[in-house]
Automatic annotation (TrEMBL), chains A, B:
The keyword Membrane applies. GO terms for cellular component: plasma membrane. This is Uncharacterized protein. It is a multi-pass membrane protein. Residues 189-336 form the CSC1/OSCA1-like cytosolic domain. It is found in: Membrane.
Length: 737, 737
C-alpha cells in the first residue's frame, strides 16, 4: 500500500465514523429511540420524556461525550459492577502501553526505518507516493547496526508491558477482594452446587444430601435444593411462555384479522388450563418426586466459610462423587443444560472441543475468499472474464490496501477495484467475525457449565483463540491457509516463516484496524441492528416504555476484539510502527463509546468479580511472546546473529514473569482466603437480616420450571428473557429483604 | 544378531546369575555377613547367630526362596509399609501384562513373522544361524494382510493394559485409604508446614504464627514449632557428629599408632567442651532468638480435619504468603535445605531444571561411546590401528549383539570382538546408569523439597524420563545422538523415523534386558558393593551386631528400572516379540529377589502411602502411546493405509482413559477426603493416649540442630545417618507413647 492509499482508507472510515457520531447525537435525543439508545435509563425510570418539542433535539451535540467521560471508576463500579470496570481497564491498559509504544515507534523507529535504504530511498517530495513498507523494518539494511535500536525497543516494551500487567493484576485482585468485602448478603456466597450425588437404593437425592451433610458438616449445613431435569415440564412451560408473549403482542395490535385472534384465544385457554394444573403444589411435588430429580443439589451453609470448606475439601473417597463447585448467583444459573453425571459433563466437554475445531476449519473459507480478493492477479488468472472489469483503463490494480512489492508508481485506480480489494475483504471478515461469538456461546453452553457467566467466559476464551488463529495466523500465512496445521508441526521453521510473512501483511492489518476497529466500534455506538429492529417493529407494537428489553454486555464478543487489536499492536510495534497511531485512535474511541454504552444501554446480568482479567493477562503474555519470536526471526533474517541470541532470554523471562503472576494472583480469582471469609462472616454475625436471609435462602435456587407460572394481562410487560425474570425475582427476594 | 549370538549372550548371563545365586545362598548363612545380607533382621534382633558350626552352612540351599515367596501381601504391608507393597505390585502388574503379551507374541505373532519372507526364508535346519530379524515384523511382506494381526495385537494389548491399570489404580487407592484408616496417631497427620510467613516489624515469626492461627483457626489450632535455618550451629553439630563417629571407630581399633590417638583425643576434648555449651538450654534459646529463625513453621492442630482445612484453604489474600503444605513424617523431614522464601524455592526449582538438562547432555557422551562400539566398522575407519586387533583371523565382526543387516553367515568370532561389541557397551551403559539416580537425588534435594520422600519421588520422576530419553531415544536414534532435540522439533516425521530405527535396535535391547535386567538384579541380591565394603572394613572395625546400618530401599533407583523394562516390553511387543520371554524372566527374578531384600535388608525410611503409583501409571500410559505411535509409523512404512488410519483412535482413547484416571484416582493421592478424616477423628476422639499425644506433638518437629547433642561411649552404637537417628527418636517419643 502506498501512503495515499492509506490516507484514502483512513478518510473513508473517518467519514463513516463522523456520520455515525452525528446520527447518534441526533437520534438519541428522539424519545422514540430511547428504547434503543438508553434502554437501561428507561427501565430505571431515569429517562424522562421531554414535555415539549425543542429545536435542540434536531441538532447534533456533544453533550453525551461529557457525560460518558465524567463518571468516576467508583461510580461505574457501583452502577455496572466490577466486570464493567475490568472491561474499561483493559482499554485503559492498552492506551497506556501503546502510548509508550507510539512514542518509541514514531519518534525513534520510523526515522531509523526511513533512513535505511534496503528497499529504496524515500521520495520526500511526493511523500504520499511512498510505499508503506519504506516506513517499516523491511527498509533497514541487512546487518545494519541500527537494528540494535529495534532490539532495544522490544526490550523496553516488554519490560513496560510486564510492569503494567503486574500493576493491573494487583489492582484488580485487590478490587475483587474489596468488592467481596463490601457486598451485601448474597445467597450464592453461602451456597455450593454438589453434583454426581450417589443415591443408595430406596433413597432419594434429597435424603442422600441431607444425610451426607448433616454427617460431615453438622455445624454449618443449612439447607438444600435438589435440581430437576430439563424435562417435559420445562419444555411445556417454556413453550407456554413463548406462546403467551406472542399472544400479548398480537393482542396489542388491534388490526389483526378476527380469525387469527380467535385461534390464539383458544390456545390461550389451553395454557390457562395448564397453568392451573401447575399452580397446584401437590401436583408439582408428585411429579418432582416421581422421576424428575437429578443427582445434583444446591447446598446452603450457615456461613461463607462453611460453604468454602465444603467447596475446597475433597468430600468423598471417590473423587468423581460429591463433586462441589461454587454456586452461581441465582439469576446466573443456566437451567436448560444440566448434565447429570461426571462422565456426561466430561463427554460433552470433549464434543465441544470437536465442534470448536470444526468451526475453526469452516471459517477458513471466508478467510480464503478474503485472501483471494487481495490477490487480484491470481483471481484474474482463474477467471479471465474478470480481467475486463478489474483492469479498466489498463492499470495495474494489485494491492490497494494490500501487499505491493514492486511497481509503486500507481496513478489512478478504478473505483470497482478499490472496492473489491480495499473494502470487500475486510467487510467479509467483519461479517463472518460477527457470527463467531454467538456460535461460540452456543457451543460453550453445551459444555456443561451451570452458569451464564461461566459460559460467556469460556466463549470469550474460545473467541480469543479463534481470532488469533483464524484472523492473525490464517491471514499472515495466507499462502497455505489449509496447511496451517502442518506449518505448526515444523516447530523450528516458525520464527523465520513468521519473520517473512508478518511484515508483508502490515498494510492489511492497518486497513483492518481502521475498518474493523474504528467503524465497527462507532456502529456499536449507533447500535445498527437494534435501531433497524426498532424501526421495523414500531408499526406492530404499542409504544410503551415498560416493555423495554435491557440487554446485557456481550463480554465474550468485545473483550476478544480489544485483545486482538492489542496483539496486532505488539506484533507490529517494531515491524511497522505506523500502525500504532491508528490503534491509539481505536482505543480512545472504544474508551469513550463503551463507557457511554455501559452507562446508558447495558445492565449487568451477572457479577463474576473480575474473573475476565486472567484471560486478558494470558493473551497479553501470548502477544508479547509472539512479538519476541517474530523479533527472533527478523534478526535472523536481517543477519544480526548477536541480536538474535540476545532475544532468546526475552521469552524465557516473560514466561517466568507469567508463571510468577499465576502463583501470585490467580488463586485470588478462584477462591477467597480464609482471612477474608472469616472477616466477612464475623461482620455479618449480628446483621439484623441474617436469620431471615438464611431462612429464605433455599427459595433463591428453585427451578424455574417448577415455580408456578402466573400470567395475566397486567403483568405482560414483564415477559422478558427468562434470565432477566429470574434476576428480578431474586432481587425482589433479597435486595428488598 | 543371529540366534546363536543371542544364545551365547543368554548363556553368559545365565551363568553369572547362577553364580550370584549360589554365592548368595552360601554367604548369607555366614554370621559374618549378616550385616550385609540381613541387616534389618539383625537390627531387630531376629537374626540369631548359630550356636555351633554345621556343614549345612557351606552348601548352597534354596530355602531363602521359599521364605521370600511365602509371606502374604498383608505381612509385607505391616512389615515394610505400603510403598513396598506398591513396589511389588509394579512387578506383579508387569508380570501379568507381559504374560498375556508373551502368549500373543510367541504363539501368534512369531509364527506370522516367520512365515513372511520380506527379508529371506527361515533356515529351519540350522535354526541358530538365522538372524533375529527374521522373527520380527521386518520379515512380514509389505502390504501383507497378516499385518492386520499385528494391529489386532496392539489393540488387544492396549485394552488389557488399560483394564489392568484401572484395576491396579483402584486397588492401590483403596489400600491407601485403608492404610490411613488403620494408622496409629501420628504427628504428621495433625501438622502442616506453613512457609513464607509475613512478620510485621517488631514481631517474631512465632508471635506472627500464633496470632494468625488463633485468629483464623481458633477451634482447632494447637501449637507451632518455628523452623531454624541451616546455620552455623547446624554445620558445627554435623561436623562434630562426623568427627565423633570417626573417633569411635578409631578407638575400637586398638592397633592405631599412639600419636594419632593422642591427636584425636585432643579434638575430642574440644568437642566435649562444645557439647557442654550446646547442652546449656539458655544458650540455645539465646542463639535461637537472635537470628536463626526462618519464616516457616510446623503448625499442629487438634484434629486431622482441622489440619486438612488449614492445608487446603487459601489462607491469606496474598497467595504467596502463608503457603501451606502437608508436614512430612518427623523422621522424613529434610532439614539441611530449607529455602525460606517463595521466590527462593521457585528459583532453586528453575536452577534444578537447568542442572537436569546439563546432566542429560553430559550423559550423551557414554551413549555415544556405546554406539561407537556397536558400530565397529565405523571405529575401524577412524582408528585403523584397531583393525588388526578386531579382525583377527580376518573375520567380519560387525554386530555381535547388534544390528546386522547383511552377511548373516558368520562362522567364528574372536573373543576380543565379542567382548567389545557384545558386553562392553552394555557395561558402560550400566555403570553410567548406576550413577544417575544418586546424581538426580542430589539435584532434587536442591529443589527445595522439605522431605526425603518428596525428594526421592522427584528423583524417581527425573530418572524415569532420563532413562527413557537417554537410553531409549538416544540409542534408537543413535545416528544423531546430539541432534536428538532437532529431531523432536520436526513433529510430523517422528513416527516414521521411529518406525525405521526402533526395530533395528531390537537385538540391542534384547541384550540389554539380559545383561542389565538379569545380571544386575542378581547382583542386587548379592549386594556386591556392600559386600566388598564389609570385607574391606572388617579388619578396622569391631564386629558388633549393634552398629549395623540398615539401608532404606532406593525407590528412585529401582522403580525407573522396572518401568523402563516395561517400556521396552510395550514398544517391542509387536515388533520383535522375542524380547518378551526374556522380560518375563527378568520380572520373575525381580519379584523374588526384591521380596527377599525387602524382608531381610531394607527398612522403610518413610511412608508415602503409595504415592509412587501415579508415576508408574503415567509412565505406562506413555509407553502405550509410544507403542501406538511406532505402530502408526510401521503401518505407514509397510504400506497398509487402512491399518494406519485405524491406529489413530488408539492414542486418543488411551489419553482419554488416562485423563479419566487422573480425575478418578489422582485426587486420592494428594488429599484425604472429609469423610475419611472425620471418621478417623471420631474414632480417636476417646483414644486414651490422645491428650498426651497432643501435648507432645511439638517435640516431634524440633530442629535436630538445636536438640542438645549427647555423646558418650556407651551410646556410640547409635551413630547412624542423621535420618535414622531422628526416626528412632521420633519412634521412641510416639510409638511408645
Amino acid at each position: 500500500m502506498i501512503v495515499s492509499g492509506l490516507l484514502a482508507s483512513v478518510g473513508i472510515n473517518f467519514a463513516l465514523c463522523t456520520i455515525f457520531f452525528v446520527l447518534y447525537s441526533v437520534l438519541r435525543k428522539q424519545p422514540g429511540n430511547y428504547k434503543v439508545y438508553a434502554p437501561r435509563l428507561l427501565a430505571e425510570g431515569k429517562a424522562q420524556r421531554p414535555s415539549r418539542f425543542k429545536l435542540d433535539r434536531l441538532l447534533p451535540t456533544a453533550g453525551w461525550l461529557k457525560s460518558a467521560w465524567q463518571p468516576s471508576e467508583e461510580h461505574l463500579l457501583s452502577y455496572s459492577g466490577l466486570d464493567a470496570v475490568v472491561f474499561i481497564r483493559i482499554i485503559l491498559f492498552s492506551l497506556k502501553i501503546f502510548t509508550v509504544a507510539g512514542f518509541i515507534g514514531i519518534f525513534i523507529l520510523i526515522p531509523v526505518n526511513c533512513s535505511g535504504n534496503q528497499l529504496q530511498d524515500i521520495d520526500f517530495e511526493n511523500i504520499t507516493n511512498n510505499s508503506l513498507e519504506l516506513f517499516s523494518i523491511s527498509n533497514v539494511k541487512n546487518g545494519s547496526d541500527s537494528l540494535w535500536i529495534h532490539l532495544g525497543a522490544v526490550y523496553v516494551l516488554t519490560i513496560i508491558a510486564c510492569y503494567l500487567l503486574y500493576k493491573e493484576y494487583k489492582y484488580i485482585s485487590s478490587k475483587r477482594i474489596d468488592y467481596f468485602c463490601a457486598s451485601e448478603l448474597q445467597p450464592h456466597q453461602f451456597t455450593i452446587l454438589v453434583s454426581n450425588i450417589p443415591v443408595p437404593r430406596g433413597s432419594t437425592v434429597g435424603i442422600s444430601v441431607e444425610n451426607f451433610f448433616t454427617e460431615n458438616h453438622p455445624a454449618t449445613y443449612l439447607s438444600k435444593v435438589v435440581v430437576h431435569r430439563k424435562s417435559k415440564i420445562w419444555t411445556l412451560t417454556t413453550a407456554a411462555k413463548d406462546l403467551y408473549s406472542m399472544i400479548i403482542n398480537f393482542r396489542k395490535v388491534p388490526t389483526q384479522p378476527q380469525f387469527i385472534r380467535d385461534g390464539l384465544l383458544e390456545r390461550e385457554n389451553l395454557i390457562n388450563h395448564r397453568e392451573k394444573k401447575s399452580d397446584d403444589p401437590e401436583a408439582n411435588v408428585r411429579i418432582d418426586r416421581s422421576r424428575e430429580e437429578i443427582r445434583a443439589a444446591f447446598v446452603s451453609f450457615k456461613s461463607r466459610y462453611g460453604a468454602a470448606i465444603a467447596l475446597h475439601m475433597l468430600q468423598a473417597n471417590n473423587p468423581t462423587q460429591w463433586r462441589t463447585e461454587q454456586a452461581p448467583e441465582p439469576q446466573d444459573v443456566y437451567w436448560p443444560f444440566f448434565s447429570t453425571t461426571f462422565m456426561g459433563r466430561w463427554i460433552s466437554k470433549l464434543t465441544v472441543i470437536g465442534s470448536c475445531a470444526l468451526v475453526t476449519i469452516l471459517f477458513l473459507i471466508p478467510v480464503f475468499i478474503v485472501q483471494g480478493l487481495t490477490n487480484l492477479a491470481q483471481l484474474e488468472a482463474y477467471f479471465p472474464a474478470l480481467k475486463g472489469i478489474l483492469t479498466m483503463k489498463g492499470m495495474d490494480l494489485r494491492g490497494f490496501g494490500f501487499q505491493i512489492r514492486s511497481n509503486l508508481c500507481l496513478a489512478n485506480m478504478s473505483i470497482v477495484s478499490q472496492v473489491i480489494t480495499g473494502y470487500l475483504p475486510n467487510l467479509i471478515l467483519q461479517l463472518s467475525l460477527k457470527i463467531v461469538p454467538p456460535i461460540m456461546k452456543v457451543i460453550s453452553s453445551a459444555q456443561g457449565y451451570i452458569s451464564i457467566s461461566e459460559i460467556e467466559r469460556s466463549a470469550c476464551h474460545k473467541v480469543v483463540w479463534f481470532t488469533v488463529w483464524n484472523v492473525f495466523f490464517a491471514n499472515v500465512l495466507s499462502a497455505s491457509a489449509f496447511s496451517l496445521l502442518f506449518i505448526f508441526l515444523e516447530v523450528k521453521d516458525i520464527p523465520s516463516k513468521l519473520a517473512v510473512s508478518v511484515p508483508a501483511q502490515a498494510s492489511f492489518f492497518i486497513a483492518y484496524v481502521v475498518t474493523l476497529g474504528w467503524t465497527s466500534t462507532s456502529s456499536e455506538l449507533f447500535r445498527v441492528i437494534p435501531f433497524i429492529g426498532s424501526l421495523l417493529s414500531k408499526p406492530f407494537s404499542k409504544n410503551s416504555d415498560d416493555d423495554v428489553n435491557v440487554p446485557s454486555f456481550p463480554y465474550h464478543q468485545d473483550i476478544p476484539k480489544i485483545l486482538f487489536f492489542g496483539l496486532l499492536g505488539f506484533t507490529y510495534f517494531f515491524l511497522a510502527p505506523l500502525i500504532i497511531p491508528f490503534l491509539l485512535g481505536y482505543f480512545s474511541l472504544a474508551y469513550i463509546i463503551y463507557r457511554n454504552q455501559l452507562l446508558n444501554v447495558y445492565a449487568p446480568k451477572y457479577e463474576s468479580g473480575g474473573k475476565f482479567w486472567p484471560i486478558v493477562h494470558d493473551t497479553t503474555i501470548f502477544s508479547l511472546v509472539l512479538m519476541q519470536f517474530i523479533a527472533f526471526g527478523i534478526f535472523t533474517l536481517k543477519k544480526l546473529p548477536y541480536a538474535t541470541t540476545l532475544t532468546l532470554p526475552l521469552p524465557v523471562l516473560t514466561l517466568l514473569f507469567n508463571e510468577y503472576c499465576r502463583k501470585r494472583f490467580l488463586p485470588i480469582f478462584t477462591a477467597y482466603s480464609t482471612e477474608t471469609l472469616l472477616k466477612k462472616d464475623r461482620e455479618d454475625q449480628h446483621h439484623p437480616e441474617l436469620p431471615h436471609f438464611l431462612e429464605q435462602i433455599h427459595a433463591a435456587y428453585q427451578d424455574p420450571a417448577l415455580v408456578p407460572a402466573n400470567y395475566s394481562a397486567n403483568q405482560a410487560s414483564h415477559v422478558e428473557p427468562l434470565i432477566s425474570t429470574r434476576k428480578l425475582e431474586a432481587k425482589q427476594r433479597f435486595n428488598a429483604a
